[in-house]
Amino acid sequence: MARYIFITGGVVSSLGKGLMAASLGALLQARGYKVRIRKFDPYLNVDPGTMSPYQHGEVYVTDDGAETDLDLGHYERFTGVSARQSDNITSGRVYRDIIAKERRGDYLGATVQVIPHVTDAIKEFALADQGDHDFILCEIGGTVGDIESLPFMEAIRQLRNELEPNQTLSVHVTLVPYIAAAGELKTKPTQHSVRELASLGIKPDVLLCRAEHPLPDGERQKIANFCNVRKQAVIPALDASSIYAVPVQYHKEGLDTEVLRGFGITDAPEPDLARWNDVLDRYENPEGEVTIGVVGKYVGLQDAYKSLNEALVHGGMANRVKVNIRWIDAEIFEQDEGDIASALEPLHGILVPGGFGERGSEGKIASVRFARERKVPFFGICLGMQMACIEGARTAGFDAASSTEFGETSEPVVGIIEEWMTAEGLETREAGGDLGGTMRLGAYDAKLAGNSHVSQIYDGASMISERHRHRYEVNSAYIEPLEKQGLVFSGMSPDGLLPEIVERPDHPWFVGVQFHPELKSKPFDPHPLFAGFIEAALEQSRLV
Ligand code: GLN
Q1: Which amino acids does the record list as binding UTP (predicted)?
Q2: Distance, CA of 65 to CA of 69 (rounded, Å)
Q3: Centre of ligand 1 from the C-alpha of residue 384, in Å
Q4: Residue 36, SS3?
């Protein structure tokens, strides 16, 4: 029987509920329990796939091809449990399914209503796919009091009655602000938030109080009294030195102990935190540092490249170095050529990340060229690999080389699969059930060439599986001229038709990948491509 932990937020948004859920999951896991974490998003988009990265941060893609909220990335990085489509639901998806059923006549003429139809669908989602999990953590997006989250709160309230008495627990994350002028911590916002939650029929069992200043005993007792929880269940959650310090810190404050107690479990094994202590040690005690430039488009908002940012840090942990990331707007290189060298020269590694659209593409191509000519470690991811191929083609004499994503071109080095694949190739792929034209999403295999640089990086593997999110592919008609120019296609789709990885043997470290390796990197298990890239950057730092 899976136990359910419902996590809600109060007072303000941006309290780090996702990180808190991920940390609680990691702590329960460290005690030997099997966990899964789910996200309920109250907005009306069916999924975040079409939302701007500026608004919503990155879209996190799962193995099974779902485009999900970036919090699922936190969950996966902290627990190592692969997220699935069935771990993220939005109001949009609930309503879409209900309306489709209504149009089909499945409701047999009944009036379709928020209660019970929407709430039933939410409950069904929460209860689906329980497997042999000990705990399923459900994070509700937004803040208590939001109109759009009401059906989710109602579904939780009902579930708390329908499941066994010791099978559910409510954790409420709040803020205890510090008023500098008065020199005081204020508990009133927490009291109001708990009252709001109680008015929806949900009494929290554990309060996680985010604060910038230590919570004195008296304030803790006051919150306990006014919010109707025991004092030990008021957990102070002070700002941590880094996200990697959060699980251990929350454990010290008693979060997991109190959660287990709420379920009546008092004999759980102590958590094995060795993994987290090691991660923290590597992060907090680096033996050197490197500076990596990320030449992209959404550089104004770091959440837009959340997993990438994390994977670079993990690569640093693998090498025990601090990674300084310089976010560079590719467009600035299009305005003044002279800027390129001064911006890129101080870097020990250049990374061109995934992206969509033409804006900044010439700046990205110029960055590839700089990295290639100056022999600076280069890592191209998705769009970054496509730019590396276009740069190679232009160097090979195809001056018009481009991607059809940017408009019509006489040299479609990158294009939609039907635009460049032969009829025979298309037939083969259609028989295999994979035709382009829409996004290629989720995990796909790639075959690595023996004795290539990447097969070494992947520890001698001949087949790998990585996650994709793109519509365009490198046109295999250009493989031959590109190989003559020095690029090696060292990873291909298993049928040999789609380029997956390119590298340059005459360069210290030059790798382009059509997939997103950053989505699978974890602090305790850094992705080999990022570990290798940072290692190369470290060597570069010794040269300059
Ligand atoms: N825009 C490119 C494509 O759709 C690359 C996508 C990406 O980098 N994720 O193929």
Answers
A1: 13, 186-191, 222
A2: 13
A3: 9
A4: strand
Among candidate residues 348, 453, 516, 527, the one labeled active-site is 516
**Alpha carbon of 79 to ligand 1 centroid (Å):** 28
Query: Is there a single domain that holds both residue 490 and residue 525?
Result: yes
Residue 40: CB atoms within 10 Å: 26
d(CA 465, CA 447): 9
Take residue 185 and report the two structure tokens written for it. Answer: 């911590």
Q: Which residue CA neighbors atom 10 of ligand 1 most closely?
A: 472
Which amino acid type is present at position 199? S
Number of other residues whose CB lies within 10 A of the CB of residue 148: 13
For the chain, how many structural domains are there in total?
Answer: 2
Do 88 and 142 fall into the same domain?
yes
**Catalytic residue flag (residue 382):** yes
Q: In terms of pTM, does the model score above 0.90?
A: yes
Q: Indicate which residue of 382, 391, 466, 468 is catalytic.
A: 382
In angstroms, the CA 453 to CA 498 distance is: 19
Residues with Cβ within 8 Å of 120's Cβ and at least 6 positions away in sequence, in order, are none
Let me know if 541 is exposed, middle or buried by CB neighbors in 10 A (0-12, 13-18, 19+). Answer: middle
State whether 297 and 216 are in the same domain. Answer: no
**Domain span at residue 342?**
286-413+434-543
Q: pLDDT for 70-129, tens place per residue? A: 999 999 999 999 999 999 999 999 999 999 999 999 999 899 999 999 999 999 999 998
227: annotated active-site residue: no
Residue 440 CA, ligand 1 centroid: distance in Å: 10
Q: Is residue 424 annotated as part of the catalytic site, yes or no?
A: no
Ligand 1 residue neighbourhood (C-beta within 6 Å): 354-356, 382-383, 405, 469-472
Ligand 1 probe mutation, 379, 383, 420, 474, most atoms within 8 A of CB: 383
Nearest to 206 by CA among 135, 151, 258, 150: 258
Pick from 216, 131, 137, 122: nearest CA to 170: 137
pLDDT digits (tens, 9 = 90+) for 3-16: 999 999 998 887 88
